[in-house]
Amino acid sequence: MEYLLTLLLSLALVLVLSILIRPVTIFEHQRGLLYRRGKFIRILEPGARWIFRPWETVQQVDIRLKHITLSGQEILTKDNISLKISLAAAYRVADPYKALTQSQNYEEALYLMLQIHLRDVIGTLLVEELLSKRAEIGNILLEKGREPACELGLELSLVNIKDIMFPGDLKAIFAQVVQAKMQGLAALEKARGESAALRNLANTEQLFANHPHLMQLRLLQTLETQAGKNLVILPTEWMTTLNRQKEK
Predict the structure, then answer these.
(1) Whether the Cβ atoms of residue 87 and residue 165 lie closer than 8 Å to each other
(2) Domain boundary among 141, 165, 189
(3) What is the pLDDT of residues 134-170, one digit of tens each?
(4) Which residue, 31, 57, 115, 179, shows the most beta carbons closer than 10 Å to its own?
């Protein structure tokens, strides 16, 4: 009987403890916020611990790197051209307490902040500037967003323009502009090559004018390499020079 009573008391104690105390495990990629009677006490580092259920609660926060995408933001450029721009950003929770207390939803707050900064920056640029400074715009947005993100308890590590989408008619116009530029560059290179060839011809002409015998020697060399293929009648003095060259 005494044994049975001890067993019952032990079971009752275990039941009471299971109701009052529960284990909490914080993983490496998490941090825990310990609250006692609704008041924040401290941030819990990774590990296992027990909490007193009636008074204490733990809220877990993931601190791993996260990515968000702002898809198809319709924005007007400085020259009043409507574009759709997609933005990619990467962030992590740097201060779990701030992240949970400064905003009801820190990811939505970050999304809205990036959306506003994107509109502000694109609104100051012409379309050509936007296309030529695509990488720089990401850096500008990153610098503008770091301080507001820090106030939300977040660390903003990357902001990049993912896509720039033009309306159909404007896309065709830009394709024609790009094609015209490519054709212009090709014509410019061709003109440069022709100019170089003309300069070489002019230099050769000047050289032959200053040294007439070089023309004869060059012609004689050509005749030697083409011997037996063509019939060429030469002046007597050129034949004399040719014979001398052969004797040498």
Answers:
(1) no
(2) 165
(3) 889 999 999 999 999 999 999 999 999 988 888 766 6
(4) 31
Query: Are 51 and 72 found together in one domain?
Result: no
- Please give the residue range of the domain that contains residue 102: 66-165
CATH code at position 118 = 3.30.479.30
Q: Running DSSP on this structure, what letter comes out for residue 62?
A: E
| pLDDT tens readout for residues 101-135 | 999 999 999 999 999 999 999 999 988 888 888 88
Give the number of domains in the chain.
3
Distances, alpha carbon 104 to alpha carbons 35, 99, 152, 234, in Å: 17, 9, 10, 100
| Residue 205, C-beta contacts closer than 8 angstroms, at least 6 positions apart | none
Same domain, 100 and 134: yes
3-state secondary structure of 203: helix
